[in-house]
Amino acid sequence: MAGFVVIVLNNFQDQLVFYVTPTDALEKHAANPSKSRFRLGGLVLEGSVVYPASSPEVEFVVTDLITDILVRYQGALPDLFREGHSVVVEGLVKPFTDDIKGGVSAKSVSEKARSIDCYFSATEVLAKHDEKYMPKEIAAAIEKNKNIVIEAATVAAAETPKTT
């Protein structure tokens, strides 16, 4: 009976889909590449949406303000999908292939996301025009990262020598 419960719980855990930020996604993938199906939440980076000529997929970058990850999705994007707005994508992390890595976008905003060894292959894209759709844990992580970025910029500005 205990063995049956363990098997059922393991199978159930494998079917759960968690919300993670791009930073968490890359850490999770590095720790266990075989279990990488989850929901990725963040902001669609401004200027990152492209439709590669060599592929039926759309590419865009999702950021948590610290880490950027390239997302590839084949299908129609939701009407409310917008750059600079929140998005949740479901899928899995995959290693870059030579074709994908070589298909560098004309937009330089994806360079940071292309500098890592993997991308997010989305099977579903969920978007809404306001932050209310974003899961609490993702919104909290982005707010925390925003504060880190502001603090780093303040420190850098304070350390910059002033010329008169």
UniProtKB/TrEMBL annotation:
Lineage of origin: Eukaryota, Viridiplantae, Streptophyta, Embryophyta, Tracheophyta
Pfam family membership, one: CcmE
Protein name: Cytochrome c-type biogenesis protein CcmE
TM region positions: none
A single GO BP: cytochrome complex assembly
Source superkingdom: Eukaryota
Subcellular localization: Membrane
Gene Ontology molecular function: heme binding; metal ion binding
CC annotations in GO: plasma membrane
Alphabetized UniProt keyword annotations: Cytochrome c-type biogenesis, Heme, Iron, Membrane, Metal-binding, Transmembrane, Transmembrane helix
